[in-house]
């Protein structure tokens, strides 16, 4: 666990694995923090230098006043990599984390060796849907929307058979600062990365969950189709957070992609 000041805010991050291995960065989703990667990291810790962090407004990182932009989040990641002296990294991003991954691949292509875009898209939702969500959170906090979010995060099977874990991940969600959450909703609302998707040069794998209620498989596939050479993979029995629900399957897909990209 470490804390670093970048762009005027403190970011919480962890560096694990092999100090001299290729860098592998994981970027979390809306309402989550770096703990969502805990069951994926062990598959890579023997070969990679792994960087986990809480993006602004989330986890133990600072939550400056809303709103944020995807470029704010991207600036934070670039500054964090500078601080850690990581010149180039493979980037795995979940949902809004995948939007940050797409943006860094366009803005700083020399720093991205490979990209895994998990349950994400170049455009997520509509301005109206995000405006509604921001208004709801500004009005009553995250608690009243939490159960609806959890329904998109996890499949019915996961929710029925692993209720204590659902409670734990729900606790993570509702403990996100309201303005950190709403600020990142605004970043997603305002981001349309489709015009630049064709400029992504990093080898890219797009992964979808077959029961994802937030970025359905056809939406993820639509983004894969915009990125030159991108591959698409579908995980059966997964919602929006396969790093929690299907970590072994996701780890295998990430590992194969990184090998094909020549990282190890
Ligand atoms: O809360 C959701 O609907 C899931 C989600 C959308 C963007 C993100 O990062 O998570």
Strand content: 15-25%
Q: Which ligands appear in the coordinates?
A: ligand LWBT4IAB
N-to-C span: 26 Å
The rough form would be described as globular
Main sheet: which strands, in order across?
1-2-4-3-5-6-7-8
Number of strands: 8
CATH architecture: 3-Layer(aba) Sandwich
Tell me the CATH superfamily. Alpha/Beta hydrolase fold, catalytic domain
Please name the CATH topology.
Answer: Rossmann fold
Number of structural units classed as domains: 1
Q: What is the helix tally?
A: 11
Measured as a percent range, the helix fraction is 40-55%
Order of helices and strands: EEEEHEHEHHHHHHEHEHH
Radius of gyration over alpha carbons? 17 Å
Key words describing this protein structure:
264 residues; alpha/beta; Rossmann fold; 43% helix; binds the ligand O=C(O)CC1=CCC(=O)O1; 3-oxoadipate enol-lactonase; AB_hydrolase_fold; hydrolase
Q: Can you tell me about this structure?
A:
- By secondary structure, the protein is of the alpha/beta class.
- Helices cover 43% and strands 18% of the residues.
- It has one domain: Rossmann fold (3-Layer(aba) Sandwich), CATH 3.40.50.
- The protein has an 8-stranded mixed β-sheet with strand order 1-2-4-3-5-6-7-8, sandwiched between helices.
- Helix 1 crosses helix 2 and helix 4 crosses helix 6.
- It is globular, with a radius of gyration of 17 Å.
- Bound molecules: ligand LWBT4IAB.
- The site of the ligand O=C(O)CC1=CCC(=O)O1 has 11 residues, from helix 4.
- It comes from Microvirga terrae.
- InterPro entries: AB_hydrolase_1, AB_hydrolase_fold, Carboxylesterase_BioH, PcaD/CatD.
- Keywords: Hydrolase.
